Amino acid sequence: MAAFTGLAEAIAGNVRDGDVVALEGFTHLIPYAAGHEIIRQGRRDLTLVRMTPDVLYDQMIGAGCARRLVFSWGGNPGVGSLHRFREAVEHQWPVPLELEEHSHAGMAARYVAGASGLPFGVLRGYVGTDLPAHTSTIAPITCPFTGEVLTAVPALRPDVGIIHAQQADREGNVGLWGIQGVQKEVVLASARSIVTVEEIVDTLDPRVTVTLPSWVVTDIVHVPRGARPSYAHGYYERDNDFYQSWEAISRDRDACTEWLALHVLQAADFAEHLALVDQEAPA
Amino acid sequence: MAAFTGLAEAIAGNVRDGDVVALEGFTHLIPYAAGHEIIRQGRRDLTLVRMTPDVLYDQMIGAGCARRLVFSWGGNPGVGSLHRFREAVEHQWPVPLELEEHSHAGMAARYVAGASGLPFGVLRGYVGTDLPAHTSTIAPITCPFTGEVLTAVPALRPDVGIIHAQQADREGNVGLWGIQGVQKEVVLASARSIVTVEEIVDTLDPRVTVTLPSWVVTDIVHVPRGARPSYAHGYYERDNDFYQSWEAISRDRDACTEWLALHVLQAADFAEHLALVDQEAPA
Amino acid sequence: MTQIIEATQVPLDGVTTDEIMTVVAARELRDGVVCFVGIGLPSTAANLARLTHAPAAVLIYESGTIGAKPTRPPLSIGDGELAETADAVVSVPEIFSYWLQAGRVDVGFLGAAQVDRFGNINTTVVGDYEHPRVRLPGAGGAPEIAASAKRTFIMLRQTPRTFVEHLDFRTSVGHAEGGDSRARLGMTGAGPQVVITDIGVMRPDATGELVLSALHPGRTVAEAIAATGWPLRVADDLAVTEPPSQAELLVLRALTSRP
Amino acid sequence: MTQIIEATQVPLDGVTTDEIMTVVAARELRDGVVCFVGIGLPSTAANLARLTHAPAAVLIYESGTIGAKPTRPPLSIGDGELAETADAVVSVPEIFSYWLQAGRVDVGFLGAAQVDRFGNINTTVVGDYEHPRVRLPGAGGAPEIAASAKRTFIMLRQTPRTFVEHLDFRTSVGHAEGGDSRARLGMTGAGPQVVITDIGVMRPDATGELVLSALHPGRTVAEAIAATGWPLRVADDLAVTEPPSQAELLVLRALTSRP
Q1: B72 part of contact set with chain C, CB < 8 Å
Q2: Binding-face residues of C in 119-148 toward B, CB within 8 A
Q3: Domain boundaries, position A141
Q4: Domain coordinates in residue numbering, chain D
Q5: For chain D, N or C: smaller number of CB within 10 Å?
Q6: Chains B and A touch (3+ CB pairs under 8 A)
Q7: Is residue C113 within 8 Å of C71, Cβ to Cβ?
Q8: Class of domain D2-254
Q9: Is A166 on the interface with D (CB under 8 A)?
Q10: How far apart are CA C173 and CA C148, in angstroms?
Q11: pLDDT tens column, C154-210
């Protein structure tokens, strides 16, 4: 059974220095509140896993939480580069960042294998590209029936999987709808899991398309707007203005450090962070 | 784009003697009307594929449609044996029936591989059992990362996949809900597909959990109660009495042949079949 | 729904063998257990447990229903009520991959046509595979339940034709050839922990061999030995099954008598 | 929404290079096409096609939305409107396995930081992989779109830094080394069929080498050659792009100006 707890307790109880941590969300339902709490608690040497590291991982990398990144596409969607990610890779600042680089199809197959209790997944992928020369977790595999050579990738099994979702009921069953991404897979593939939710309800909404039963989730935390500036379908929209403003904030090392200090480290919790960004938002 | 057509045309246009045909439904949404039409059109030498061949396949086997069965569990759920299946295997009547026998997990992995465009699927299965000695479509496969030996099974790619569903909209998008079985996978794994539906609607019901876009379906046929004596969640319940009565009908070769002649072959269509069984049903 | 079960003795007259098997099986399920349930007695036993001492038991049916709470034993694995009462309904491929294979199932129930001394199971054929005397339904979900559930429970009536020295076909693996042979097959689950029959209860010893560990009231060791096709060993501390309590029988009969 | 497009000539003054690239790309999409759409110009082009000559085009975004019908170009691949307007929303693993890998996508759009003469693509790094001058976003969905879509379209601005003799990193395969080298890699799709730039349009010849096949109005062969890092071949029947019609521009601007 999932435990209902506070965010600081959930992060302190589940995320340790050196852990493999996946905060997932395919544009939708990205667990910003949980990521900020990891920054606030000063976690270090994390291996961060995510298909689409975007602004949240840029913040965590800029804050020095990460030693290694397992990913398939790192950018600010529709805006441009992730400057903290780039600076870590191009200039080893604030710390060097090792990369384990895959494609989306490969990362998805890796999560599916992890959720399925298989050591590897199979796909038609990577063949003819330079990825296998730089990523050791890509290997050929031969179909025993046709002789065709395909590609194998090892299962992802993070220590902690973290997602945001719209709802949990009082028994701790988690429900989400809209773009699903790999939200189910990351929870099922991980040894421990944290789900932040918009709302705790008596009965899950009929719109729910993905349900995670209470007994597969470790901790549930009620964090309204916990995905902002990402969005929660049916609750609030994506704050595209913030994603665009991150371009300027993140370009400069010191400006970004200052932003993180003011908006994350010095905020007591995510509610205080939200109050601050709301106040700063263009009217 | 799916074509809206009549059932006789859909079967005549898609199902040929010798084809590999999968009529799926995991207790729910079994396409009885389509199966009866295959019997009525006298198709022969079919390879019938299904995880859970039950009474419909017993009827098709008893009617002499099948040369080969690819399956994982053949029985009348909660009632007992399939006597036509048993007689075909034990006494080669009305024709010998070759078996290609798997487990549920293996068949599911085969459909997933077929739907995914992969030549094989991987699972933890079959190891230590006598199945690999009798089924050639089971092979060991070694994880290139851990050295662990798992099991590979080849993709299922039927010539025709047939399912029943609750609804199609006027563009031919198919929607179903309740127990999903492998309804999506069999359509996506097959070269051609037929979907019979309870109802054609302007807008799919919000309860729909699985949508098959029009452009992946070959033919859609409106056949109310087309899954009876199976059921269509939200439309009608399973006719458990009929499943129990099949035990007596099917025990005797001649009684079954007579039943098929009267209820299937001599019925002009499924509506006439339904009228007959309704009339015979206990009040 | 939690009920306090009083160990009231009821006369065994009128208690059917199905009922005693079901009650004994239900008692083996702890509260909160995640149980992969087959149709028939296992489904009834799991629901009996859920309605008595194990209200938080999670019932998974292979049709893809997780946390089903049927009010009556379903006739088939895919009855509509399972989907209506479930916490989640997923596809059949997902139930086998994300749920069973991933090791999320605590207890898998298995039936059998034949079982051997190591709890290996045949549900495929009686006689030769190519020319069977009796063609049985086949594997279904059993091989992978047997492999991947953390523990399995087996339920079947005990006769010399069902408890055999040599299986005609090994459909699902129990303790294989005993010793560490199961572990060497790479199976993640621990295999059969209990076999519940109409005569009594067997449990594996350290080598994996099934040993008679309890008799149901009124049954004898001689009966159990006579109904077993291999030289059956008997536990030193052979127990007698606690008869079904009135509460257990009331709930069970209410469950099975629902229209 | 079907519209009759009149080939009205409009002055090219005020038509941006993004607009001409988008219009040319949209025209390449036939009605009913199943299109795997990336964010940015490809998404705008696919929606322009859908709103003009190809109302039955099916737009698939890698976020799992099938048949999305956004009213404005989404900023990100996973905007809520994509899910709201889609025929079906599936998981990300499913979109890559059941839909893309299975060969159900007719046209996949790809962007690039570098492209070579055979339409191979780099979106990973500029410079050495271990010590990059510019770290780019990486592969995303591109390698498998490039492998499994029946055809791919590439859109990027043409400069000697983007159209290069040698890629710094091959992220996605086009026509590989030309000839039958792509087919020998076992790829199910046919590879790049068109590259749309701000200067013109390139198409592969029989060997897979990209050849300049059309120039946009006002652009010259010399410009195209100067903006290409390999000795660019020019088609004998070099065409001039039909300028965007008034109807195309009206729909495009309405689409991109929505708040």
Answers
A1: yes
A2: 124, 129, 132-135, 137-144, 147-148
A3: 118-154
A4: 2-254
A5: C
A6: yes
A7: no
A8: alpha beta
A9: no
A10: 11
A11: 999 999 999 999 999 999 999 999 999 999 999 989 999 999 999 999 999 999 999
